[in-house]
Amino acid sequence: MRDAQGQWIVDPEFIPPLLSLAASPTLVSELGELLHRLQARRRRLMAMRRESNARMADFAVADVSLFWLLNALNSAEPVLSELHQDPSRHPELLYRELARLAGSLLTFSLEHHLEAIPRYRHASPEQVFPPLFALLDTLLEVSLPSRVIAIALEQGADREIWRGRLHDARLREGADFYLSVRSSLPPHQLQSRFPQLCKAGSHDDVAEVVNIALSGIAIKPLSHVPAAIPLRLENQYFALDLSTDAARAMLEAGNCTFYTPESLGDVKLELFAVLRS
Q1: Is the entire prediction scored with pTM above 0.70?
Q2: Domain ranges of the chain
Q3: Is residue 7 pLDDT above 90, yes or no?
Q4: What is the DSSP string of the chain?
Q5: Residue-level pLDDT at 171
């Protein structure tokens, strides 16, 4: 393929015939992302489980399907994790485990059939693994729909204002909001300074809050990140206090704004909403 300057470069997404998974960074990266999604869904299933006694974890009768889903994820994750940690293995081993997991997840889908699993073709891995990973993403979402909504934030020209739109009606019916923050500040400074200096609210409210030095929506640092949220080790995480009038005004307005002064360093914000039901 050609780059923006018209020079020939290697397509980073291309997967050539392999004798080792390590020969394709794309394949190893895709496997790592799949493992992250598996772990997030497994943690969510475990949270849904109720303990009947100290020796036995029990599911309600209506949740038998969740039990079998948890069984499928628990069976697949250790093997896939081992392949990710030791990518010197032959790609056919990865294919077998991915196909086995896809077959298990097809049990929970009414729209996909066994024929959707591509057969292994050593000479054409680009026709095998990308569609197989895409199928697994779809099946994981169908079997256990994600409760997290990523809300796109646009950074203003001055780099201090971030704006987003809260179009999804579910956000006003019952959701918790979390900020994932990366900064050039040391983590301990960001944890203490971000809740004090960042101003949050609706578009109109934040402009007023900044001008007259009010507090806006309270922001609280998190010691535990909800399992549904993508975890980035270099980021710090914060929750918005939705019990205030400013938070209710933000939800009613259907938009949100965050002011991050230069004293917080070079900041990158991500906003996630986790549905309560």
Answers
A1: no
A2: 21-143, 148-275
A3: no
A4: -B-TTS-B---TT-----SSGGG-HHHHHHHHHHHHHHHHHHHHHHHH-EESSSS-EE--GGGHHHHHHHHHHHHHHHHHHHHHH-TTS-HHHHHHHHHHHHHHHGGG-SS--GGGSPPP-TT-GGGTHHHHHHHHHHHHHHHS---EEEEPEEE-TTSSEEEEE---THHHHSEEEEEEEE-SS-HHHHHHHHHHH-EEE-HHHHHHHHHHT---S-EEE-SS--TTSPP-TT-EEEEE-TTSHHHHHHHHHTEEEEE--GGG-S-EEEEEEEE--
A5: 87
